[in-house]
Amino acid sequence: MxxxxxxxxxxxxxxxxxxxxxxxxxxYPFETGISTDCYMIILLRTLEMDDENLIDALVSRILRxxxxxxxxxxxxxxxxxxxxxxxxxxxxxxxSGHRKKEDREIHLATRFxxxxxxxxxxxxxxxxxxxxxxxxxxxxxxxxPVKFILFPVSFxxxxxxxxxxxxxxxxxxxxxxxxxxSRKTKRSPDLSDLxxxxxxxxxxxxxxxxxxSFQTPFQRGISSLIGNPEQLHELALQRAEEYMxxxxxxxxxxxxxxxxxxxxxxxxxxxxxxxKDPIIIKAVEGLKxxxxxxxxxxxxxxTTANVWNTALISHALQKAGVPSSATVIKKANQxxxxxxxxxxxxxxxHNQDVTPGGWGFSHINTFNPDLDDTTAALRSIRSFARNTxxxxxxxxxxxxxxxxxxxxxxxxxxxEKNVDNTLLSWLPIEGGGSMLLDPSTADLTGRTLExxxxxxxxxxxxxxxxxxxxxxxxxxxxxxxxxxxxGICYIYGTWSAITGLAAVKTRSNHPQVQKAIQWLYAIQxxxxxxxxxxxxxxxxKYVPLKESTRTHTAWALDALIAAEGKATPEIKxxxxxxxxxxxxxxxxxxxxxxxxxxxxxxxxxxxxEYLFPLLALANYREKFY
Length: 625
Prior knowledge:
- This protein is mainly alpha-helical.
- β2 and β3 form a beta hairpin.
- The protein has helices at residues 2-18, 35-46, 52-64, 83-96, 104-115, 124-132, 164-179, 204-208, 215-224, 229-245, 258-270, 278-288, 306-319, 327-337, 371-385, 389-404, 422-425, 432-436, 442-456, 463-474, 490-503, 511-522, 535-539, 550-563, 569-580, 608-624, and strands at 30-31, 291-294, 297-300, 530-532, 544-549, 594-597, 601-605.
- The strands form 3 sheets. It has a 3-stranded antiparallel sheet, with no helix packed on it. A two-stranded antiparallel sheet has the order 2-3. Strands 4-5 form a two-stranded antiparallel ribbon.
């Protein structure tokens, strides 16, 4: 076993080393299904930008993903298919001009859509896209008025009570919905056969009735604004426009997010910008730069994950024994040093008087740091911070920023502090609190504690550590697991929590730690591995995948290695699975291990198949050899 572990560690180290880019980063694809591919086609056709090579390539990938029943799925074990994804694909294929209504692929897709309720049943974001492109009616009234953007931060409900993801998408929607803006072209397809009953193209009204109970806070806020109503209305639109323009990255994208940039382009046209305006042209070019190649197929990434990949891989390589003096580590850390953020972003609104010092997810991102990337980058540069002043300065700034981002409840969020107004979590929007809020989560809290415990040797009696531990213990699920917001899902959260608790010296025989360990043992598969379905995220309870994956197995093993004093039979079986599955290449390899929006889109991090098994094996070797 020892020899095999060493061989596999060396194989993974060699593979990762060879795949490092010239600039020191790792640019593994950030794969999120077909939605972004579809939206890129729809955007190009709407703007009448004829990039036929790109459209051809995206059409090819979309068609390859279609199931035999005509539907598209967002994860492998989704029942028949995903209605919204199928509508998006059908629309994009028709708009591309490469497929017509009578073609078999469209015929099968249309039948699936009609059997599952038609356009009335798709998610709200897709309805917004259809409204923007003239295929769906805007609602007569907007539940969240554009004047909402004028509410001061001191008001009980304001723009910055929303998560960054929600804000970046909502602001352009507020503009376009206010104008009821839409743009059709001569090439726009006819989707009328996807409305099953008269009036389905305006069914927002029934959905939005659920919002009426939330009108009072908005009305109260509007009545408190001083000024002429028409002038306030125009001021709100100007502020919304400025919000977008002031948060563009150097590549022209809005927050370096595909969906936010897509919506911004339409919002600017609603405000009177020409489709050929340099700002819009640059935004489109920025989105085009999100292209990546997956198995010789072109995919539009939602964003890039270079900083995240690089920080995680550099740390895993160092844990596996690659010295910090090695070129691969020097290049990686030099790359990360250049990506530390020095700008005050929206995070500073709820966290004033703190110097910037975090890291973001994308290599494009310059003012949107997050806790996960910050602690991951700090883990990677730790060895350099000891003796090199420039790294020490970056280390100190990063530490200060990470500590300052702790929520008042003791846990840590992803992007912004104390963005957890529970009133908003009840709004009837797909994803609910997951999209609208940025609360403390077990995965962020666990990994932040793990960093402070293992990489800074912070005194575990520090008040902020004790508060983090208390939050974790109070938020354990009844079955012993923890829910992980940014991964799939309960295995991910439990791994983060256990490794975090172990790092800050929570005793391994603590009843709650033992309950978590027993839960992991109970869900181990017969082949020795672990696997979890994306359905866990939708049902908010653990749902087994019925197949093991290398990534889930690595997470479960890493948790058990951290908590157990010896290599138990279950751990040994898990290690054996990782070794036996080292060259596994089936649907489980590409199964999403990350989540973006529950029930909406999931993420296949291509790097995870290598870096997390490497980390688990390295930790196993270090502790039990």
